[in-house]
Amino acid sequence: MALGVALFVVGALLSNATEPGAVREFFADNGLVLLTAGIVLAAVVGVGLFFVGNKELAKAWLDQYGLLALFLILILEGAMLLYFAPSESLVPLGVTLLAESSTDYATIAAVIAVAVVGATIGQYALFLLAKRGGREYLLEKRWFRIDESQLDRFDGWFQKWGRVVVPVSNALLFTRGMLTVPAGFAEMNDAEFVVLSALGTLVFQTWLAAAALYALELGFLGFL
């Protein structure tokens, strides 16, 4: 986490302190990707300690910083910046590593709540960029990995089905967040978007948490 923040700060300082040129352009285009990579790397190191390091130390770190790390990573996931990690594993890992047992309902609820709030913040940030920046602004950004043909397809879904596709897409595998940008282009009401986005994410993260608890009950995740 500290590495991610450091990369972001250094990038921001260099991009603002130098004359327009290669360095400033690099960090302007890739600063968000560097931040994402740093945060995910820190999280991977923390989880990796369970397998190759000091498990007690890893548990102490996760107990202290686990929810914060999950919150930051879910913001990135909501903003569609988490390209190189399976986002569907985040809440199951959170429940498995942070909850004392399958009946630790307070921790399980906290993991789900943090995931919903984080993802909604990320989606809202992307929604605002789409709403205020427009189509061409996003398509020219290197960190925006959706190409024009995919964007046309998502636009078509939104135009055909309307606002209901925001929570529905958020509640399903492989379509999470895909309708965030078309909703911004359509200038959907901010409060309505936040509520519908959060509702779909709540459904999605709840069933992921339930699947993780079921796997724990069956002993499939006993190695954690």
Could you please describe the fold and organization of this structure?
The chain has 224 residues and is an all-alpha fold. The protein contains ten helices and no strands. Helix 3 runs parallel beside helix 5. The longest helix is centred in the N-terminal third of the chain and has 31 residues. The chain starts with a helix and ends in a 6-residue tail after the last helix. The N terminus is likely disordered.
Q: Topology of this protein?
A:
Elements: H1 2-17, H2 22-52, H3 55-78, H4 90-98, H5 105-133, H6 135-139, H7 148-161, H8 165-170, H9 180-185, H10 190-218
Helix pairs in contact: 1-2, 2-3, 3-4, 3-5, 4-5, 4-10, 5-10
- Give me the number of helical elements: 10
The separation of the N and C termini measures 22 Å
H and E order: HHHHHHHHHH
What structural class do the secondary elements suggest? mainly alpha
Largest sheet composition: none
Extended strand count = 0
Radius of gyration: 19 Å
Residue-averaged pLDDT: 79
Q: Which range best describes the helical content: under 10%, 10-25%, 25-40%, 40-55%, 55-70% or over 70%?
A: over 70%
Note poorly predicted spans. Answer: 1-20
Strand content: under 5%
Backbone shape = elongated
Label this structure with key terms:
single chain; 224 residues; mainly alpha; 10 helices; elongated; disordered N terminus
Quick description:
The protein is mainly α.
